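In this section we walk through a basic example: taking a raw amino acid sequence and producing a predicted 3D structure, encoded as discrete structure tokens. The instruction is simple. Fold the sequence below.
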Amino acid sequence: MGVSTAGVLTGTGTYELAGVNAEPERIRTRYGDTVVRREERAGIELLHIARHEEGHARLSNHVRHRANIAALSHLGADCVIGVSMCGAVEPSVSPGSLLVFDDLHFPCNRLADGSLCTFHDTPGDAMRGHWIFDRPFCDGLRDILVEACGEAGLPVLDAGCYGHVDGPRFNSRAEIRSLALAGVTAISQNCGPEAVLCGELELPYALLGYVTDYGNGVTDTATDLDDLARLVAASKEIVPAVLDRAVPRLKAADLASPGAVYRFEK
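The resulting token sequence is shown next.
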């Protein structure tokens, strides 16, 4: 019962968390290394990974998803919160909106290098198995994020289908239309693998999206790059405001990974 250690994965615009002053620590895994900052907050050990690293050194095709999730698991994370800047596919979701997603569109299930998105890469591994779920995100962790947004005075959509798309380019009008037909609400280039990999390790995971623009063709006018930059800059205050209110709630939270992993050996 309760969370003692929580992972936080942040994206574009959030390379450090306010109040997290710890020195970056390089953690080595069999999937490569990753940079983690550790800090105690409200009685919770917070493990922060900036996906793109300082200065946005890693584009989406360079992010080491398996290393990131493996490191958080190795360091004892009881749950993981993902935060992502998103492009809206649904016209009613305007830039500046917050979403706590409840579904996932990631049909290719592959990492940027073309390999399958899985930790199960060794035949006979005792931990191999199928992640079986109805919804891919942890409901208890989703509730905490929704409540935290409300306490911060930030309107939030308590639903939405997250669409994972390949980068680093943005999507064409035709691609956005196909995503809309699939029921996708908003897209970004990093969080599909996180959901899948956390699911395989039975780590409760939830995703907070912050909409910075519309996908190509969703509106009659193209994205204004100045508006995009302004909203990304605003995330430096919005993301910490939500996390500051979410983290204390974790201590008493009873969280479970969605679904189950069907393993072939006990």
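Looking at the output, two observations stand out. The longest strand covers residues 32-41. Residues 5-263 form a domain with the Rossmann fold fold (CATH 3.40.50.1580). In the next section we compare this with other chains.
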